[in-house]
């Protein structure tokens, strides 16, 4: 399984999470859908779709929580017949990180993904560069940044 | 956290040497109910026990010996005992001292599985 990172400090924690939780696909991204790292995806278009849809779900559940005057939901799990989808966010000094994980019910479980997600969050917090917010992508640079990220993620 | 299953877990935790008991959703590996002494990581035990149960189930099927009814893992500093409640998909888990009376815990786990099922 291929694991690649745009932000290199995410690579080791993500690789360990994938191995321990037996996750099939994982995306680390910002709430805006900017991908930090991916594992298991073979096509750029799938990463783009998953990032956009994951970011949209996070935005809509956050808004739903606001409407209910509740703090944001900690995590969301959707279980199908063969696969589960786990979506959660946690805060780093640099900003919020969204984790989207898809797991096979044959080889993993919600409990395992939750367990090792906590470890992932702790490892990423420890590995995250301290001080200074990440560079913001301006609309004018968006396409070039996206293209550069996808090139990195797919080793082009 | 016992979620109305306190009486089921009481059957197990009243045995001398048992440090905790849990009901775990076998498919998900999440805790349904637990009575644990401090220091036992319930979520971790639940997730890993369910993962092991799934693999054991497949191994037993492959070996053609049917479903497992009880397993006992002995470690240096303790023991993990599990009975799957087949009808409900719940695992009844006990964490105990190494010198616990295994026969008695097994009996109570089977009773608890019957009640939980």
Provide an overview of this structure.
The complex is a heterodimer of chains A (156) and B (117). With 156 residues, chain A is an alpha+beta fold. Chain A has a single domain, classed as Dynein light chain 2a, cytoplasmic (Beta-Lactamase, 2-Layer Sandwich). Chain A has 4 helices and 6 strands; from the N terminus they run βαββαβββαα. In chain A, strand 4 and strand 5 form a beta hairpin. In chain A, helix 1 packs antiparallel against helix 3. Chain B is α+β, with helices and mostly antiparallel strands and 117 residues long. Chain B has one domain: Beta-Lactamase (2-Layer Sandwich). In chain B, a hairpin with a 4-residue loop joins strand 4 and strand 5. The chains are: A alpha+beta (156), B alpha+beta (117). Chains A and B meet through helix 3 of A and helix 2 of B.
Short description:
The complex is a heterodimer of chains A (156) and B (117). Chain A is 42% helix and 26% strand.
How can the largest sheet of chain A be summarized?
6 strands, antiparallel
- How much is the radius of gyration of chain B in Å? 13 Å
Helix content of chain B: 25-40%
So how many helices of chain A?
4
What's the overall geometry of chain B?
Answer: globular
Question: Tags for this entry?
Answer:
heterodimer, A: 156 residues, alpha+beta, Beta-Lactamase, six-stranded antiparallel β-sheet, 4 helices, 6 strands, 26% strand, globular, B: 117 residues, five-stranded antiparallel β-sheet, 30% strand
Topology diagram in text:
The complex is a heterodimer of chains A (156) and B (117).
Chain A: E1 3-5, H1 11-21, E2 23-29, E3 35-39, H2 44-67, E4 75-79, E5 83-92, E6 95-104, H3 110-127, H4 142-153
Antiparallel strand pairs in A: 1-3, 2-3, 2-6, 4-5, 5-6
Chain B: H1 6-13, E1 18-25, E2 30-36, H2 42-63, E3 71-75, E4 78-85, E5 90-96, H3 102-116
């Amino acid at each position: 399984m291929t694991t690649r990172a745009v932000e290199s400090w995410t690579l080791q924690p993500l690789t360990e999470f994938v191995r321990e939780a037996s996750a099939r696909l994982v995306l680390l991204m910002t709430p805006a859908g900017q991908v930090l790292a991916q594992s298991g995806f073979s096509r750029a278009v799938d990463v783009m779709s998953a990032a956009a849809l994951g970011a949209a779900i996070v935005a809509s559940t956050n808004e739903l929580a606001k409407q209910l005057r509740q703090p944001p939901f900690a995590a969301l799990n959707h279980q199908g017949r063969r696969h589960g989808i786990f979506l959660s966010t946690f805060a780093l000094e640099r900003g919020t990180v969204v984790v989207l994980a898809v797991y096979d019910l044959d080889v993993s479980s919600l409990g395992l993904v939750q367990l090792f997600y906590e470890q992932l969050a702790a490892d990423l917090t420890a590995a995250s560069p301290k001080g200074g917010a990440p560079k913001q992508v301006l609309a004018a640079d968006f396409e070039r940044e996206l293209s550069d990220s996808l090139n990195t993620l797919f080793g082009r | 956290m016992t979620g109305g299953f306190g009486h089921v877990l009481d059957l197990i935790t009243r045995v001398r040497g048992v440090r905790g008991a849990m009901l775990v959703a076998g498919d998900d590996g999440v805790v349904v109910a637990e009575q644990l002494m401090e220091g036992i990581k319930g979520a971790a035990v639940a997730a890993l026990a369910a993962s092991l149960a799934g693999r054991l189930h497949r191994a037993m099927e492959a070996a053609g010996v049917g479903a497992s009814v009880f397993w006992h893992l002995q470690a240096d500093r303790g023991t993990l005992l599990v009975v799957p409640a087949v009808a409900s998909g719940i695992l009844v888990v006990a964490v105990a001292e190494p010198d616990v009376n295994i026969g008695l815990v097994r009996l109570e786990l089977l009773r608890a599985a019957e009640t939980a099922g």
